Amino acid sequence: MDNTRELILALVKQYHQEKFGAREFDPSRDLVHYAGRVFDENELCNLVDASLDFYLTANRYAEKFEAEFAEYLNVSDALLVNSGSSANLVALTTLTSPKLGDRRLQPGDEIITVAAGFPTTVAPIVQNQLVPVFVDVNLGDYTVIPEQVAEAVGPRTRAIMMAHTLGVPFNLDAVLDLVKKHDLWLIEDNCDALGSRYHGQLTGTFGQLSTVSFYPAHHITMGEGGCVVTNDETLARIARSVRDWGRDCYCAGGENNTCGKRFGQQFGTLPYGYDHKYVYSHIGYNLKVTDMQAAIGCAQFDKLSEFIEHRKTNHRKIAEMLHPYEDRLILHTATEHSDPSWFCYVITVRDGAGFTRNQLARFLEFNRIETRSLFSGNLLRHPAFENIERRVIGDLENTDTVMNNTFFIGVYPGIGDAHLAYIEGVFKRFMSGERV
């Protein structure tokens, strides 16, 4: 049987070469993608290897990834889930647990966040009957304005939940001062910032909880997948319960009686000794990952450092090529004390530039260079969020500028020197007056 498995995996390597072997970039035909999966035969071999076990749900590869990822971040727990959005839902819902006593979040409590972000950073706040308080962002780094966070704190403020926008860490010094001063929870949405650092420390390790996404556009991928990260064992156990149907039991799949008290405890008004495997202490979900996803993640994780460096190199080269147009474009910048693991290169068209964001983006797209908006622009202008209960600090002027004038292009590791040379040429043509 082992020989058969080895033969299968050898054929998988051959198939990868035939199906996905490298070819040169052809600017007359190929897209310059804003993001995408970058992989070799190892991802395919891991995927097939996991499938041959036919365990299907989380198993040895999930355990391996969680252990190695937690070690990388130097935290106690990394809990795999099926997406970064699910990770946000699990993280925020964790803080509503009755097991947290007086510190639990209650309906009507306020959570400070930003409107210039991804909807599933905010959706869990609404879904848990909490009230988002929206603050504005800086142009250039697109992270929260610290003074507005301070202004947003009110008598019912209990937590801060927001992203390190597109790889750029927000001002953690200022935010952590407020967290400490007002005894707040902090959830870092680290989905677009895996590998970013602030004062040399990895983002996703400052708050009580953080989240990561492994969607194909992100730094490493499982296809669909995400992770909840914490260095607090109580929060980890609650998060695991929320992820796993809301059950109180913490046995791994296929295991029984880890606590040694499966039939010897009292829960609620259940009969004494009710089977602990079927006791539910939270309103939960089933948001687990499959072992086949985790198998891909294990191969991707081996490439993380290389991917991060490639992103940094591409970001630097794009910054250099766009520098001559700084009078018309706001270029992408890092916050002080940060070392971003860039998700993309963000561009804002200045007022009075002589052209609009849409004209520039349309020209790039016409020439097969993919662009994307900075997610929602202003989330509060979208139908799903127009009428939610909320509080807003100021007029969100910069957030509206992002909505109207901002977009991004890719820096992911699939972009090489040939792509960059082509991007530079297309920008030169547009800035010289060419239009579509």
Description:
The protein has 436 residues and is α/β, with parallel strands linked by helices. The chain has 13 helices and 15 strands. Helix 2 runs antiparallel to helix 9. The N and C termini lie far apart (60 Å).
**Total count of strands:** 15
Strand content: 5-15%
**CATH H level, superfamily name of the largest domain:** Type I PLP-dependent aspartate aminotransferase-like (Major domain)
C-alpha Rg (nearest Å): 23 Å
In whole angstroms, how far apart are the ends? 60 Å
The whole-number mean of residue pLDDT values reads: 97
Number of helices: 13
Kindly report the CATH topology of the largest domain: Aspartate Aminotransferase, domain 2
Provide the CATH top-level class of the largest domain.
Answer: Alpha Beta
* Number of domains as seen in the coordinates: 2
Runs in which pLDDT lies below 50 for 5 or more consecutive residues are: none
Helical/strand content category: alpha/beta
Described by strand count, sense and barrel closure, the largest sheet is:
8 strands, mixed
Written as H for each helix and E for each strand, in order along the chain, the element string is HHHEHEHEHEHEEEEEHHHEEEHEEHEH
Strand order of the main beta sheet, please? 1-9-8-5-4-2-3-14
Write down the overall geometry: flat
> What fraction, in percent, of the residue positions are helical?
25-40%
State the CATH architecture of the largest domain. Answer: 3-Layer(aba) Sandwich
